[in-house]
Structure formats: C-alpha cells, structure tokens
Amino acid sequence: MTDLYLYQTVHLTGGRALHVAEHAALLDTASREWFGRPYTPAPGALKRRIELRARQEFYPTEVSGFIRLELRPDGEERLLPAGISLYGGYGYRSVQPAAVVLRYDLPLTEAPTSVHETATLLARRAAERAGAEAAIRCDAQDRFREAEGAPVFAIVGRTVLEAPGPESVERSITRQAVVRAGLELRKEPFGLADLQRIEELFFTDHRGITSLSHCNGQPLMTFLAERIARELE
Question: Which of 22, 52, 165, 210 sits between 20 and 30 A of 172, alpha carbons compared?
Fold first, then answer.
C-alpha cells in the first residue's frame, strides 16, 4: 500500500457541514506530526467547499450526507462523496451487529491514517470469517481500544465507560450527549474481563451511534445507547 493520507468524514445535515473546525484541527495535529506540515484552512472557506461538494453530488437535504476529507503528505486536500444516511442528523442506527474481539496493534499510530483504515477493513473481514459483522480491537492486555475503527463505549448500570483512545469529533459529541442524557461518564479501561458485567456496548462514527447486539457470543442490551443517541446533535 503506497497511497498514504489522513482522513476525516464530515457529517452534513440540511446541507450544512458540522464540526468543520474541529475536524480540521484534528487533521492539523496529525499532519504536523506525520507529514511535517500544518493544515490550517479557514474553517468558513472549508465548510463552503464541503457543502458545495455535497451539492455537486445532488445530496438530498432532508437526510444527512457525508463528505470525506483526505489530506495527502504533500498537503493536497481531497473532498470525496461518502454516501447519504437514512436519517436527518446523527442517528441511532437500526443495524445492531454482532461483534468479535480481535487482538492486534496498529502500525505506529492510532491517528486517522489510510493504514488505520486498511487495518479496520481487514479486521472486519476477520470478524466475518468468525461469523460476526463487526470487530472490536483490543490490546495485549485484552482492553478494548475501538470498534470498527471508532471510539467504543460500555454501559454498566447508569454509568457509561469510555475506552481510552485518540480524540475525535465523534468521541467529543458522545461525551456531551452522555452528560445531557443525565448519565455518569467515566474514562477508564475495560475489556474482555469485564464482559460479564457490561450491559451495553456501542460505538460512535460519522453516522451516529451503533449498538452491538452480541460480543463474543454474549448478548447485549440496546436501551440507554438509544437514549444517548437522541441527545446527539
């Protein structure tokens, strides 16, 4: 694989691009670290470019759409269509996949790179071979790091546990939604050893919240995650 890039997927609702400045800031941090160059577009101008790209794709404004922002090592910015949603705004997805836990490390970094994306795709293929639809990545201590390349959360009682991991727009809006839902939030490790006490597992990506129906064969509930999803923007 030689096509190296950083990426973010921007959510648009009603034709408006959300959290553009935050997405750009994350790319700037990663670009300075890995490409040795800043990425500092004017947020307003970038927002207009993203919204124009969505119009060029004839995205309907009554539902959400997604534009993928890729940044290459030479500083080239690419805006690519990434599909539309069944929902308007961040949603609680009707799909509730079963997951298996896979232990693997990412090369060098957990930043949103093309390498990370490829590893996530390969992990999903491994999950499918195991009879599941989604993969949870864990570390050498069997602590969960992410699900489908996105931040993963567990619910125990009325407490939401946030697995440690890199900052993202999706992680940030989930924390805010948990607080608005009146639930306790704790950032602490959890993993395979905690499965018996975990009631719900979910992850948040650019589409919204996805609850997992099973993890390694253990059935999970899908109650409070839906409540949290209602508090997303």
Answer: 52
